[in-house]
Amino acid sequence: MPKITQKIPVIVLTGFLGSGKSTLLQELLARENGQDTAVIINEFGEVPIDHDLVRVGRGELMRTSTGCLCCTAGSDVRGTLYELYEAVESGDVAPFSRVIIETTGLADPAPLVNQLVAGAMPAMGLRDHVVARHFVLAGVVTTVDIITGEITLENHFEAAKQVAFADRIVLTKTDLAQDPASKRDIDLLAEGLRQLNPAAELTDRHGEGVDLDSLFVPRNYQPASLGEDVLGWLAMDQAVSAEGGHAHGKGGLSRHAARVNSFVLTSDAPFAEANYKRFMDVLVKAAGPRLLRVKGLIALEDAPDKPLVIHAVQHAVFPAVQLEAWPSEDRRGRLVFITDELEEKPVRELFEAVLIGRPSAMERLRNAIGLGPKPTRDA
């Protein structure tokens, strides 16, 4: 007898790089209501970080996909959902009541929505028919960071589309706004979001009486209620897919600007704390808005068994969080970079210069990424 007898709701959690998606998901999964949730985490880059940082509690099932779900030829989202379906039917995992897909911060939501809305995209085989019968898109939650939200919306079209497709918009990091001027900026950002998507429900993550669970309650998600722009983007995606231009790389249309670059730096050796701080200081000052996101795990010499979670977005470096232990058997320090017109080579040279302490390499690096030579003192 089939174990899945009714449609399982799928909630898409999206938002630009560094906007707080993983933090929001972590908080949800820590609650009792999150214990029967299947989670799909999609990451941009070769080395997944978020699946290590989101701790999966008892009874949850996680599937991780690297690359970009929104750009995969065929039906990768449907394929992953089918794997979840088979895992339940075979008895490998217990049934779950919902699925949450956390997208990469660069995701275009149009292809995801098209693959999950019944009849929007043609089925590629029996697998897709099974997914259509057993899963239903039941909401899109978009996070917007109040610190970088305005400039991100201005400079990155993906961020604006993520807002436009949402039926729930969550303002994050509002707890960092203490003075009246910052709070006025939040009001202006909220007003801009309402103009971009008047149909979405807007929530202050740190507002009084906020019900986190309500953001992920299944509902009747209707793209038609979100305006003509959303319907137009969905139709455009259907046309592009029909012409075979859905994938990244040669022969396909890239959904991300060619200037966006992703790379990972790893180290088997721990950092001296002073060197780590120097590395981040030089990098953020030099790169600024070109540094879309840095996220990862590093070890310090003073506590190699308790790694630090590193997170920086554009000009903002957030306080490192120390874990009690490494989250997996991989104990390498690793930082995943997503940049805008910032090449890997100078950043890697800076990383190596700080790690092994080569002053000449540091000076070359300062010139390469835009800081120029460090002033010298007169004797």
Automatic annotation (TrEMBL):
Keywords: Chaperone, Hydrolase, Nucleotide-binding. The keyword Nucleus does not apply. Residues 260-355 form the CobW C-terminal domain. GO terms for molecular function: hydrolase activity; nucleotide binding. Transmembrane segments: none annotated. Gene3D superfamilies: CobW-like, C-terminal domain (3.30.1220.10), P-loop containing nucleotide triphosphate hydrolases (3.40.50.300). Belongs to the SIMIBI class G3E GTPase family. ZNG1 subfamily. This is Uncharacterized GTP-binding protein YjiA. It comes from Pannonibacter phragmitetus. The gene is yjiA_2.
